[in-house]
Design a protein that fits this description.
12% helix, mainly beta, globular, two-stranded antiparallel sheet
């Protein structure tokens, strides 16, 4: 009986220590080591009674090819790209996005995790570099620059992203400001790996100019974002990330000056494929 009590006390003390301990939620990269991540995005949009659904899936390979005291340099390659759009009853491939298959990008990141240089080998790649918000992310501190956290902590991260394209629109240009609260729910240990479980939710506000089925429009959007993340603290990488956003857009037709409401739902799923 005494032995059982001692074992219970030991387990309890370990759990308490884990809850009190602080961890660095920072991405880690090994030189010339490839990180393979699969991602899928589904966007549903309703415009003038017509449902437009855009689906995109791909595998992104990221390799650290150079590291100094001042910067990190990465090569990135897209594989297995599939992009389709359903407009009413018609479904067709999105040729421009499908051409990203096999495309390679190079980005340089400073020690604060900010992208300071980026390049591609083709015109399609250069356009994607300019349009995609993924190249405006922080590559070292995915949850804010103050990366020392413990279970039970909550903190707010503000982020502004410019865009030159959005799913469902022929063209789009503007900016989006997000205010997201992260909560470090718990930590689990699996095979000597510390895994952080985080929830997040917040708001999204933006404005821009759009081409919607041949109509030139000025739009403002308000919405919410929420999701869950599993982060491998030991190896410094996201294992899973599920994100959902709901956006309500108020669009002013610049020709007819009529206002149109657009409702948009986006689901994003990211999973590490290294294992």
């Amino acid at each position: 009986m005494k032995l059982i009590f001692l074992k219970f006390a030991l387990i309890l003390s370990i759990c308490i220590c884990q809850e009190d301990q602080s961890y660095r939620l920072i991405n880690k990269y090994g030189l010339n080591k490839n990180i393979k991540v699969s991602s899928g995005t589904s966007t549903e949009m309703r415009f003038k009674g017509i449902d437009i659904v855009t689906n995109f899936s791909a595998i992104l390979n990221t390799t650290l090819v150079d590291s100094t005291d001042e910067f990190y340099k990465f090569n990135m390659t897209y594989d297995k790209v599939i992009a389709v759009q359903k407009n009413g009853e018609k479904t067709k491939p999105i040729h421009k996005m499908n051409k990203l298959n096999g495309e390679m990008f190079s980005i340089t990141v400073n020690k604060e995790g900010e992208v300071i240089d980026k390049s591609a080998k083709t015109k399609i790649g250069e356009e994607f570099l300019a349009q995609s918000p993924m190249f405006q992310e922080n590559y070292l501190y995915p949850f804010g620059s103050d990366s020392l956290r413990k279970p039970g902590d909550s903190w707010v991260v503000l982020n502004k992203q410019d865009f030159n394209e959005q799913p469902g629109f022929k063209s789009a240009e503007g900016s989006v400001l997000s205010k997201v609260t992260y909560t470090f729910k718990k930590i689990k240990k699996k095979k000597d790996i510390n895994i952080a479980y985080l929830n997040f939710n917040g708001t999204v506000d933006g404005e821009g100019y759009y081409d919607v089925m041949g109509h030139s429009m000025k739009g403002t959007n308000r919405g919410t974002i929420k999701g869950q993340i599993r982060f491998d603290i030991t190896n410094g990488k996201v294992l899973k990330n599920k994100t959902e956003t709901e956006i309500k857009l108020s669009m002013l037709d610049l020709e007819s000056e009529k206002e149109v409401k657009i409702y948009q739902i986006m689901s994003i799923s990211v999973k590490n494929k290294d294992d």
